[in-house]
Amino acid sequence: MAHTPSNPDSRLLQGDVPRHIAIIMDGNGRWARERHLPRHAGHREGVKAVRRVVEACKLKGVEALTLFAFSSENWRRPQQEVGLLMELFLHTLKKEVNRLDRNGVRLRFIGERSAFPAKLQDLMAAAEAQTADNQELTLTVAANYGGRWDIGQACRRLAARVAAGELQAADIDEDALAAELSLADLPEPDLFVRTGGEQRISNYLLWQLAYTELYFTETLWPDFDAQAFEVALQSFSSRQRRFGRTGEQVEQLKGA
Ligand code: IPE
Ligand code: IPE
Ligand code: MG
Fold it and tell me: Disulfide check for 22: which of 42, 113, 143, 189 has CB 3.0–4.6 Å away?
């Protein structure tokens, strides 16, 4: 129980505002299709929704926001869409980093970034370095990310430590594995939001979502605004998180 991010007692006693929100930003393509626009127009509009949600998280005092921008499976899309998405990432990063920095946002990326164009990798590293000391909000963008990849890379690192004689295989437990995952230094997500109506995880934060409250909305990502965000927060605050305990135990712990 030493590893705080997974310590359920501290999560039971936290307030109504999630410390960490993880979002699957889905529905850009359908938003565009409804308007007889190319899919790319939906992705571009989606950037505006990112700005709105970052702002809303800051206002609410949310500590961490993790956004799924590109999955390890999204390479299967038509080459043209993938290319345009890469251009949009590049363009958005160039344009937004200074603003995020001024607003105290620490920007980070998770996922296998070696697959991205070198120019994009450089910009990602520069953005992380520029914003590293900011403390208002940690904004993590999952790009070429997959939950299975994350668990796999954590296992690889543990195996390397065992091979180097730093760690005994018998000492590998949940905390040891969690400490090697991409979001090891953040509390686990309290609230998961998926826009666009699909009710699936799509290989997002598989390990970290074990006890996250799941919220699905039909709203397409480009339409997700401050009000839609508020509705998600209300849903979250109406839930009783039990982490295996009984409802009565939870009431007692909270009342204590
Ligand atoms: C999510 O929107 C954005 C990415 C996966 C990059 P989609 O592009 O999946 O939108 P739909 O699901 O086709 O509407
Ligand atoms: C999940 O959305 C990935 C991102 C939002 C980046 P998808 O639209 O790719 O998910 P599936 O394929 O419908 O499960
Ligand atoms: Mg989709």
Answer: 189
Burial (0-12, 13-18, 19+ Cβ within 10 Å), 113: middle
Token pair for residue 35? 């308007």
Tell me which ligand sits closest to the C-alpha of residue 89: 1
pLDDT in tens, 203-215: 999 999 999 999 9
Q: What is the pTM of this model?
A: 0.96
Active site residue 28: no
203 belongs to a structural domain: yes
- Percent above pLDDT 70 for the chain: 97
Nearest-CA residue for atom 1 of ligand 1: 26
94: in domain = yes
**Total of domains in the chain:** 1
| Residue ranges around ligand 2 (CB below 6 Å) | 24-26, 68-71, 74, 198, 200, 202
In a domain, 228, yes or no: yes
